[in-house]
Design the sequence.
């Protein structure tokens, strides 16, 4: 189904799972970090290879079956994907750095401290990919990830970099919980007659990942 029509440049925990569901409602088939857990045949290793040598990756093959992609690992490669898919629109999901870091501390960051406890081989493969690709490995640096100001600055720097790099006619900046209107206008889609999704709350995230440590 590639090429990608929509590229998500926003970090995880900025409403990317709700955006994934919203894009699916609009008719896209959307790649997200959770896709690796839902489809055991979906290979996560190409993203490790891409992090080491982006020019060697077959992006069409990597995103085969998808025409939209959000969350990590996609946001790490938004620049390369923009070049590969010059007609794709870019979505940047944002929230305050303080609320983003607070959400990370309740969801993803505690998981990194339990890395060695993972029982599932599939989950280990995904964790290995995330350890390298997400924020260039800082996620698994137990000292750096606890430095609130440094990590918040990394988040803010990424947001500002995307705004500088992506031409305004290709970019939509979306606030957490914003809803349908501007998204549909940007993508040329009719507003659905259903509420904008709200998924992957802190509690649902914790429930979903806990089984991989059992």
Sequence:
């Amino acid at each position: 189904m590639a090429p990608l029509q929509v590229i998500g440049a926003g970090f995880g925990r900025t409403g990317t799972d709700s955006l994934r569901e919203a894009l699916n409602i609009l008719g896209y088939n959307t790649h997200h970090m959770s896709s690796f857990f839902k489809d055991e045949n979906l290979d996560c290793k190409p993203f490790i290879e891409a992090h080491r040598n982006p020019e060697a990756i077959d992006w069409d093959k990597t995103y085969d079956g998808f025409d939209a992609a959000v969350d990590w690992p996609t946001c790490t490669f938004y620049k390369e994907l923009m070049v590969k898919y010059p007609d794709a629109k870019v979505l940047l999901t944002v929230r305050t750095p303080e609320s983003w870091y607070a959400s990370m501390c309740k969801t993803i960051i505690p998981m990194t401290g339990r890395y060695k406890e993972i029982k599932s081989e599939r989950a280990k493969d995904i964790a290995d990919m995330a350890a390298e690709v997400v924020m260039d490995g800082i996620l698994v640096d137990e000292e750096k990830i606890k430095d609130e100001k440094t990590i918040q600055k990394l988040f803010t720097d990424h947001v500002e970099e995307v705004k500088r790099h992506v031409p305004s006619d290709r970019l939509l900046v979306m606030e957490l919980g914003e809803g349908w209107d501007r998204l549909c206008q940007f993508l040329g889609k009719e507003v659905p007659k259903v509420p904008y999704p709200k998924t992957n709350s802190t509690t649902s995230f914790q429930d979903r990942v806990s089984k991989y440590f059992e």
